[in-house]
Amino acid sequence: MKALILVGGYGTRLRPLTLSCAKPLVEFGNKPMLLHQLEALVEAGAKTIVLAVSYRAEQMEQEMRKVEEKLGVKIIISLESEPLGTAGPLALASEHLTQDSEPFFVLNSDIICDFPFKQMVQFHKHHGKEGTIVVTKVDEPSKYGVVVYDAENGRIQRFVEKPQEYVSNKINAGMYILSPSVLKRIPLKPTSIEKEVFPFMAQDGDLYAMELQGFWMDVGQPKDFLTGMCLYLTSLREKSPDMLHSGEGIVGNVLVDPSAKIGHNCRIGPNVTIGPDVVIEDGACIKRCTILKGARIRSHSWLESCIIGWKCHVGRWVRMENVSVLGEDVTVKDELYINGGRILPHKSIGDSIPEPQIVM
Amino acid sequence: MESVWKIENITPRVRAEYLVQVDLSGIAVEQWCDDSDIKSACPDCKQRIHRVRFPAATFYILLVTVAFIEKAEKVWTRFRPLSLELPKPLFPVAGLPIIYHHIEACSKVPGMREVILIGFYQPNDALTKFINSVQNEFKIQVRYLQEYTALGTAGGIYHFRDQILAGNPDVFFVMNSDVCGDFPLKEMLSFHVQKGGGSHCTVLGTEATRQQSLNYGCIAENKDTHEILHYVEKPETYISSTINCGVYLFSPEIFKTLERIFKKNLEEKYSLDTTSPSKEIIRLEQDIFVPLAGSGKLFVFHSNRFWSQIKSSGAAIYANRHYLAIYRDTHPDRLAKNGEGLPSVVGDVFIHPTAEVHPTAVLGPNVSIGKHAVVGEGARVRESIVLEGATLQDHSCVLYSVIGWNATIGAWTRVEGTPNDPNPNKPFAKVEVKSTFTNDGKLNPSITVIGSNVQVPCEVVILNSIVLPDKSLSGSYKNQIIL
């Protein structure tokens, strides 16, 4: 089996983290985001994976060579000279995808869920048409484009962008399995698969929807990154509770790298991910946060809903909340209050940020 | 007053009326309306409205008279409370009541015989206890005389003239209780004596900036003789940058002037209207200083030592810092020291001996911790006053705030205010006395005040807010008054 992952551009929505690190390599749940997908694809039997990127990231290319070896999979980096949207990259990589007549996977790189690749293959083979897209249920469908399909067999009737009246609560989850013949529908130019390819396939009765079981989140921006982390940790609790941490001061689902150090009288959790070499000093309280590799959180600080970048230093009695994001190597001095601050890499913060703000 | 008013949502005019009502529910209306710190104009009705300070309910006047060998001195003090219970003059700054610092300064004047406190305030246990303790400590007689109604800044002095003149003092000091500073009373006395019998009153003066002088009584003087030539209380245009500190030294001859004004007021204000302010009111500044200026009987003594009004909680934090700094020279024993098993101290910190402060807590600079207060593990306090019986739970962080009597701050909670310190780059600048609200009806950021018996839960943030007594908060608050 083959797969194509739409990695795309610079990941501006996840800045300031993506100023230091290519988005697919930003750790989600102590593992690079892309690796969650790669591992699941390999597990489902993928042998060749094409990464469609629109900018060169040497760090990522090197990292992928290591992953190739570790997972025993061929990783091809398909570089677009100009961004080709969500469909164009398929045309660009068509030589890799059409080597046989087997269907291939296509996925957006920002999504986190229990990847249902094996079921997708079964479902696709069962209906035997050109394409299958995975759909997921959302609470507020009017914010998204929804998919209207036949509940009996899954055949898609139409797509409705931001519906004012309720027509469906299922949205495109950004995971597809497509037969090579779909490539005939795609020109080698900037094209949207959602708007310029799928509606026609649906018209022709060639597109089916499979409903996703379990959690799903597009983690492409900080707020959703944290929500996705909570869902991911909840799913870990069910599937592999041994990976989660327990002990003095640990509350709820907490993922801690073995090399991290946690002091006394702390309260960590619920929903916290602590990366390698992180140091949490005595008396800190951390809830709903991701702390990336090498960061230090000093004593008596209180953090909620934050992403702390690599090698950051958060001083004593600091209060941080409301989706504050620290880029790499940021220092926050003692006793400050950071409310929704987005801090660019290598900054030293000496004054409180009482209202949400970007600090260049 | 119990219900939660959405202060931001009402117009300035309505708000002014409402807040005056709050004050009415306290005690003295007359003084409130007579109070000349009514500066800000209401944008809707173009009328002047009262500047409002919270929490304000009980009006309180305190007068301290100090007798001195055959000369007498007297301290007059006026206050609006920071709490709803304790008279503001007893509010502790640098660990001791504001008027304790006045009385201590008086006690250093050789031959000081008596201190009289005059106020329009029902005496209570706290006041009685305070009087007993200062009497014992300074071996000086201290009495409290209660006005039957608010009598203005000089009415009380006239009313209690027999008490003040008992024992034929040669001079007496009068001090307002809403000022603080390093009072040069001995120097003032030498100056007054040197001026001889011609001087009926010496006013302590200090420098202010041109702009800020408009908020004070302004003094124009003869630079050689220091005679006051012209006096205006809170002028609209610039007069002089020398301002009245609210500390005076009088010769008994002043009573002749007071009597004349008193009788004149009685005649002029004669009416059957019971709602008009008391006819016995005499305003020291307007009724006495203005006519005395230029008569050769009124002088100013200059001081450049620390001085400030304490009308707001922001000023209390500022005064706390300065009184603590003065302790370095006068009472090093009152300042906390670092040592094994003791909490870490940064700069000047007062910790009452009965307070329980965990050794891992970090305090300072400029912190006062009151009686029986409890400061938990890893708590941090900076530029703040923690009053008697308050509890700061583990890891809490308190910055630029006043924590009221028996209030509780939960673990990992942050309580933070904004200092209203004088601009350090402007010589002679004073504490900014901002109005409570901005022109668009928002609360001006200032010191956070947590009222007595307030419960602040764990892990919240209280920023630039004022919480009235006995509230139990349930979440975070920013820039709000919580009634």
Structure description:
The complex is a heterodimer of chains A (360) and B (483). Chain A is of the alpha/beta class. Helices cover 21% and strands 30% of the residues of chain A. Chain A contains 7 helices and 29 strands. In chain A, the strands form 6 sheets. Chain A has a 7-stranded mixed sheet. A 7-stranded parallel sheet of chain A has the order 12-15-18-21-24-27-29, with helices on one face. Chain B contains 10 helices and 33 strands. In chain B, the strands form 8 sheets. Chain B has a 7-stranded parallel sheet with strand order 15-18-21-24-27-30-32, with no helix packed on it. The longest helix of chain B is centred in the middle third of the chain and has 18 residues, at 313-330. The chains are: A alpha/beta (360), B alpha/beta (483). Chain A: Residues 2-232 form the Nucleotidyl transferase domain. Chain A: Keywords: GTP-binding, Nucleotide-binding, Nucleotidyltransferase, Transferase.
What can be said about this structure in brief?
The complex is a heterodimer of chains A (360) and B (483). Chain A has 360 residues and is of the alpha/beta class.
Write the layout of secondary structure elements.
The complex is a heterodimer of chains A (360) and B (483).
Chain A (H helix, E strand, L loop, with lengths): L1 E7 L24 H11 L4 E6 L4 H14 L2 E6 L8 H5 L1 H4 L6 E5 L2 E3 L3 H11 L3 E7 L7 E5 L6 E6 L8 E9 L14 H11 L3 E5 L4 E3 L3 H18 L14 E3 L4 E2 L4 E2 L3 E3 L4 E2 L4 E3 L1 E3 L4 E2 L4 E3 L1 E3 L4 E2 L4 E3 L2 E3 L4 E2 L4 E3 L1 E3 L4 E2 L7 E3 L1
Parallel strand pairs in A: 1-2, 1-4, 2-3, 6-10, 12-15, 13-16, 14-17, 15-18, 16-19, 17-20, 18-21, 19-22, 20-23, 21-24, 22-25, 23-26, 24-27, 25-28, 27-29
Antiparallel strand pairs in A: 4-9, 5-11, 6-9, 7-8
Chain B lengths: L11 H15 L2 H6 L25 E9 L2 E9 L12 E2 L2 E2 H10 L4 E8 L5 H14 L2 E6 L5 H8 L1 H5 L6 E4 L3 E3 L3 H11 L5 E7 L9 E5 L6 E6 L8 E9 L3 H15 L15 H9 L5 E5 L4 E3 L3 H18 L13 E2 L3 E3 L4 E2 L4 E2 L3 E3 L4 E2 L4 E3 L1 E3 L4 E2 L4 E3 L1 E3 L4 E2 L4 E3 L31 E3 L4 E2 L4 E3 L2 E2 L9 E2 L2 E2 L1
Parallel strand pairs in B: 5-6, 9-13, 15-18, 16-19, 17-20, 18-21, 19-22, 20-23, 21-24, 22-25, 23-26, 24-27, 25-28, 26-29, 27-30, 28-31, 30-32, 31-33
Antiparallel strand pairs in B: 1-2, 1-5, 3-4, 7-12, 8-14, 9-12, 10-11
